[in-house]
Structure formats: C-alpha cells, structure tokens
Amino acid sequence: MEQFAISNGFGPLTYYTSRKILPESLNSAFKTAYLRTLVENTQIEQVIRLIQSFFKEADIPVLFLKGSVLAFTRYPDSALRPMSDVDVIVPADKARKAFQLLQQNGASGNWQSMNETDHHLPPLTFNSTLIEIHTRLFPVHAKFSALNKVVWTETKQWKKDPLSLPGPSIIHHAFYIATHIYYNYKRGGIRLCWFYDLQMLNKDLTTLPSEAIKKKAIDLKLEEPLTFTGTLYSCITGTPLANWPLFEEFLPSAKILNQVIKGFREGQQQDTRESYQIIIEQITNAPTLKLKLRIIIKRLTKNYRLKGWSLIKHFFTTLFRLLNYITHQAKK
After folding, report:
1. Distance between CA atoms of 44 and 221, rounded to whole angstroms?
2. Cα(113)–Cα(115) distance, rounded to whole angstroms?
3. How far is residue 170's CA from residue 16's CA, in Å, rounded to a whole number?
4. CA-to-CA distance for 186 and 180, rounded, in angstroms?
5. Is 34 in contact with 11 (CB distance < 8 Å)?
6. How far is 244 from 237, CA to CA, in rounded Å?
7. In this predicted model, what pLDDT tens digit does every residue of 270-300 receive, in sequence order?
8. pLDDT score recorded for residue 259
9. Is 213 helix (H, G, I), strand (E, B) or coil?
C-alpha cells in the first residue's frame, strides 16, 4: 500500500491527512516521504525564485508549469506535491538565451539545438534541481497541440504569500494537465498525483462559466483528451470536476476505464501498445516528408542513443510491433 501511494506521488499527502489515524508501521514510510519532499521542495522554491530573478533581469518572459507553480500556490503545504523537475516555458526565440543564462549562473547541461520534433531543450541541473525549458507544451506534430498557439495569449499570476509566479491561465493550465494525462496514458502510464493537481484547480474552475470552458475546449479541438481525463477523474474521486466539459462521442468505454484502473493497481503502467497510436498520429500530422522521416528515425533509434547491435535489435522490434499495430487497426 505505502509503495503504491509513494510511487504515485501520494506519500506526503497521505501523511498530512491521515497521520493521526494510520498505524505507526504505515506512518513511518509516509512521514519519510513527506520530510524528503519538504527538503526537496524548499530547495526547488529557491531555484524558482532565482529563475524568476535571472529571467526578469534578462527580459526573458517565463511561465511556470504543473507542480512548479501549483505546489507553492494551490496546495495547502508545498511539501505535499513531489516533483522530479521544474518545468518552465519561454518564447522559442528566447530559448537559447535562457539556457545559456542558467549555465552562466552555475547550471550544468549540454546545449543542443531544437528541431521540429522537440518541445523542450535538454535538461539542466541547477543547485541539484533538474530544469526543463520548454518552448512548446507539446510537439508541433502532436494531434492535440493547439495549446501551443494560445498559451501566451492568456496568462495569470499565481499567488500565495510570499510567492507570485507567472503561469498559464486557469483554463489553459487545467487543459494542459488534462491533455498531459491523456498523452501519458497513451504512452503507457499515469501518476495519480496529476489528478490531484486538477483537484487543486477545482475551486478556480468554479469561478468560470461552464459554457466558456466548453467553447474553449471546442475551439482548441481538445474534446477527446478532456473527456477522457474528466471521466477518469470522476471514477477515481467519485465527484466531477467543476464545470468540466464532457463530450458524449468521446466518452471512454467501461473496458478502457477498467484497464486504466487495473493498471494503477498493478503498478501504474497501462498497455504500452497505445503508444504506437501516438507514433502514427505524429507521423500523420507532421507537415513535411523531412519531418515525418525525422520522427521515424528518432523513434526507431531511441532519439539517436542506440548504436550497433542494440540499434539493430530495437529497430526491427519496434518496426515489427508498429506494423503489427497497423495491421490490427486495419482489421477493426
């Protein structure tokens, strides 16, 4: 039980809410997770403050994403939201300047020019904290990438004394997290704590008209991922997200929902065959032949990391599974 909760990012939250009623044998692991996250997030908060300061001085616009902003402005205690890194997004024409600025201030990492298949730069390590600088929320060839075009049009200062962090608007942030959950389900796994991020946004969502949220979902063509995540959220929590749009034609079947829930119970991994649908979508949506070939090569070589026999083995294994998936879909 404790390992399941901790691996899904719920260890600190379980300790915070249930420490007075759980037996000490269980509390010990959750308390350790809480204290570890408290130390880590105290360090991360200092890193976020420095990023804000560096970028403001250099006139680089920045938005903080997901736990990087929600842990410190929406959770009752920032130690309740474990984070593996700090996610920020900057304008594409400022990306290299932002990367080099952090390097000049002590961050370590190797610069690599982005191409059309990327949506963030190589990670940097700064004061023992991993930082990912995004220029897009999703790759441009992703099926549900419309948020890339609007993320800078509506922004918000997320405040909780003494912090005030720039981030996407309430709607865009909620849509981003929901679509992020959907894509990670397709790739093979979801962390339950991402649903708690949405729970932390629930009060914000109640301040927005449901029709405005629905219209935005339709305009951005996000009906499928939002319906999937909203339905799954209701199954997990027993209550719906406030004013959340659900579209009947995209409601997931009971079989899919059972598969996802079963995946949580058995180690949070879903059927990785779904990831091949993502590959097909990326190749289909890529606007040029050059980009289609680049996506295929990156997928078949694990982003150019494999060489020799490992490359040959992975190439033919992936190619066989991909063709198998296409054949299976054609028979449906």
Report:
1. 34
2. 7
3. 26
4. 10
5. yes
6. 14
7. 444 445 565 666 666 667 777 767 766 666 6
8. 76
9. helix
